[in-house]
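Entry type: protein chain
Record version: 2
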Amino acid sequence: MSLFGRKSVICAICKKQISHKHKPKSEWQIEGPLCGDCYVTQMQKFYELSLRQKCVICEIEKDVPDMWEPRYQWDMKGLLCKACFDKKDTEHKNLKEFCKICGKKLGMIRYNPKNKWPVKGQLCRECWDSQKAKLG
């Protein structure tokens, strides 16, 4: 029992008695107070993990500054390496600029397939009409 009736506090990791307690961050998933040394080591661990991440597509681990954020149209979460970003960008441009079925370059007027059709990408007028006749 110390001054003013404080109870002694024990570190959740190293089990040492501590005079000043540090509250662990919620993402560390640690219950209870930490001593200064354990707090610093946990902080370093999570900081180093945040500096390197895996690419969402190829899963190659790289530094975060070398990674690219996906465009909002792609509806993806996570980061991409430069090679996967470029590949995904050309695929997206091809989906928007060329007919998915016949491969003809689309002009000003483009047709989106219906949700129930198994086609992903935009269509020209002829292909849209043929799909409508086949699939309804």
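Comment: The chain has three helices and four strands.
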